[in-house]
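This section describes the prediction task in plain terms. A model, or a person checking by hand, is given the sequence of a single protein chain and must write out its three-dimensional structure as a string of C-alpha cells. No templates, partner chains or ligands are provided. The sample shown here is typical of the held-out split.
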Amino acid sequence: MNKNNTHFDTRYFNDNEETITKNTIIGAYFRYQRILQNISLSDAAKSMKMNKGFLSDLERGNRHFPEGTINQFNDFYLTNFQQNEKTYSQSYDLLNNAFLSYFQLNTALEKEYLTSYKNIPEKELHSYGFFTYKLVELFYQVRLANDSDIICQLISVLTNNLNVFSNEEKAIFFDICGEYYMQNYSTLFNAEECFKKSNSYCSKSSIIYALNIYQLFIIFEQTNRCAYALLNLPRVKDELKHTHSYARECILDIYSAKCLIQLGLNDIAQENLHVIQYSNISRIFYEDATIKRILHRALSFSY
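The expected answer:
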C-alpha cells in the first residue's frame, strides 16, 4: 500500500485505472460544496458568470482551472480550499496506517490513528487530501463512533466521488462499508457485495484481499452456507498465513468449527476447539479485550 510522492501532476496507477489529476480533486471538492449548499449547476454558473458546460467540465476534472478560478470558487462557496500538496500523501498515510492496524487487530494503535484525525487543522482538511480524509472519517465512524446517520452520509458522498480515489483506496472504501454492514444480520448480503466489490479493485496479494475473503468466510457461515465456506477455507488460511495475520487465523478456526457443527460434524469441531482453547497463541490473543469479544461471539454456537 504505497502512495505516490507528494508532488504530483498526474497519478497513473495501472492500465485499468483512470487517471487522477489535481483538477479531478479540485473539481470534485467544489462540486461537493455546491451540492452540500443545495445550489444547482445553472445557478452556480450564472452567479459566477460562467458557461454552464464550462463549470460542469471543471467539476468533472476535464478542464484546467484558470488562474484565479479557485479563489473565485472559494469566495462563492465561502470555502477555503488550499493547494497544499503535502496533505495528499499525509491523508493516505493516515488511512494506510489505520487500515494496517485494523487488519492486524492492533486495536489500540488503530484507535490512536483514527482519533488523530480529529486533531487535524481545518485548513489541512480542505485541500488535496479532502476526500481521503473523508474516507478516514468514515473509518472512524464505523470502527469507533458508529453514528449511522453520519456513516450513511459519508458513504453517499464517497460513492459519488470515487473518481478521486486510486483502486487501492476504492478497495479500502468498500471493505469499510462491508465492515459496517456486517454489524447487522439483516445487511449481511450488502456486506458480501461490498467485500466482493473491494476485491475487484485490489491486488490478490494485498492485505485488503486477505481481509475480504476472511470476512466473506464469516458471512458464509452466518448465512448457513457452511459447506461453501469450508470449501474456501484452505484459500482463506493461505492468504492469512501469507499476510502473517495469526490472530485472524485463530478466529477463523473457531468459525470453521461452527461450520462443522452446523454440518453435524460435532466430534471434529470439538476436537479442533479443544486444540485452540489450550494453545499458547489463543491465550495471547485473549489478553486483548476486543479479540476476546470477537472470539466469544464466534463461540456462541446454535446447537
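For orientation: The two ends are 42 Å apart (CA to CA).
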